[in-house]
Amino acid sequence: MISYLKGSILEKGLTYLIVETNNIGYKVFVTPENIENKVGEEVRLYTYMKVSDDGQALFGLPDFLSLQFFEMLITVSGVGPKVALTILSSASVDAVKSAIANQDAAAFTRVAGVGTKTAEKIIVELKNKIGVLASTPGATATSDVFDALTALGYAQREVREALNKLDHSLPEKEQLKQALKFLGKK
Q1: Which of 12, 13, 60, 175 has the most crowded Cβ, counting Cβ within 10 A?
Q2: Residues of the chain with pLDDT under 70
Q3: How does 57-74 read in b/e, with b if 16+ C-beta sit within 10 Å?
């Protein structure tokens, strides 16, 4: 079982990287933030290996927390690794957890491959597994700010970095202004 890869990017596709480690190239399906890396750059990925009758596939995530949440998502009936990766590509782990805690099915139905029934299953099956999260206006605001900034064309990696610096007690409009200031300084 391959759980972690560290190596340089040999090639890039629309949804995957080929990562060379010890003269072996691994095709790893990744989130868009990893696709932004350039060929030749070093990358570190926590991976999930899916073995099926059709073959084997590696799915790479940027950190261990994301991998754990990815593995939790794929326990839901109807959510395979590709759909789980798409969900985690659309928002941060915290934003997805907030959507589950706030029973926000719309946050999931915006993701390609997730219908209303699957969104409801995700919420029902994972709400107790993620622990009790406070349903705060700041948590849903973070998800909306993330959506707004990515719609403006900012890269998901940049947006996540900016969101980590925000004062989440502020109203959504103020969080958006604050995030734009952070992104403008880069």
Answers
A1: 60
A2: 131-143, 185-186
A3: bbbbbbeeebbebbebbb
In this predicted structure, what is the pLDDT of residue 122? Answer: 93
User: What CA–CA distance (Å, rounded) separates 23 from 116?
Assistant: 44
Full-model pTM = 0.69
Radius of gyration (Cα) for the chain, nearest Å? 17
Q: Alpha helix locations (H) across the chain?
A: 32-35, 64-73, 81-90, 93-101, 105-109, 116-126, 137-151, 156-165, 172-184
Note the pLDDT of residue 76.
92
Evaluated on CA atoms 114, 104, 65, 181, the torsion sign reads positive
Contacts of 175 (CB under 8 A, 6+ apart): 138, 141, 142, 145, 166, 167, 168
Structural contact between residues 21 and 32, judged by C-beta atoms closer than 8 angstroms: no
Angle at the Cα of 67 (from 65 to 68), degrees rounded to 5? 65
Q: Is 88 helix (H, G, I), strand (E, B) or coil?
A: helix
Q: Tokens representing 1?
A: 């079982």
How high is the pLDDT of residue 5? 94
How many angstroms separate the CA atoms of 57 and 47, rounded?
10
Query: Cα–Cα distances in Å, from 73 out to 4, 6, 32, 40, 112?
Result: 19, 24, 18, 31, 15
